[in-house]
Structure prediction request, 294 residues.
Amino acid sequence: EGASLFFFFFFLRIYPMYFILTAFTAAIIFSAPALFHSLEYSNTLLLQSLLFLPSKVGVSTSLILAVAWTLAFEVIFYFLFSLCLLFRRPTGLKLIVLLLLLWAVAGALFTSEHYIINFFLSTLPLEFTAGVFICIYFKSKHYRPLYNSQVGAMFLIITALTFTLAIPFPVADRLLTDNYRVIYYGLPAAAIFICFLSFSPKLYFSKIITAVGDASYSTYLTHFLFLGALKFAANRFGLIEGINIYVLIVFSCLFCTLGGIATHRIIEAPITHFLKRVLLGKKHKQPIFEPPRV
Prediction:
């Protein structure tokens, strides 16, 4: 029951917003196809996207909601994690790590002629493995939070610089999906994640971090919409040419984060609470292993 409830709560958290934004994007593709350079609406594209299965788009593969391509991997990860909950904690953790490593090795060594299978043959599971190890550490007796905000800020600056220097500019599309992604994105992201988790919850900005964390899934799904709106406004008023690229990046991140927080509070949270009341009832308690924020 614990495993099934875990996966159910995970699905309840991720699917309603994914469905809404996929349907919204599909409606735009159908009504205004000129806004999309490569995607063409089809019922097959919509159905496969709703099932987290990519479709063939030119020489590549994509979902209708292209930014959600990693969500397809996350669904498989949490399904495997749910199965591992059927075992005792030490055994389950070892099993999920083993499964993820085998998946990553297969992604590094093999390819397939079938585009869907080839899509899932990736080293991306190594990033999930890093998340499991980070969770184990922060749940262990060896974890000590940072009470000195200056030390934490220094760690964040170092990891942010590492993140910036590690990515070759301009960023090639293949670096987002090929086997080197774990180097350019996975390791710096894990370092930044560790820095944030190392802060003591007693620090004054813990509420800000919590708000950003609660809204992270909405930010993940909607940032392309807010970036598109920002780009439209900047082109309309001729602002892009006169703005430093790094200033633009910082402002875009803040804009998308605030947009994600607003989307979470106005749309995601009310829908999730409503579905929980309807499907589970007011008195139902959440499982011990509730899925973490995306």
The chain has a mean pLDDT of 82. The CA atoms of residues 107 and 122 lie 4 Å apart. The two ends are 23 Å apart (CA to CA).
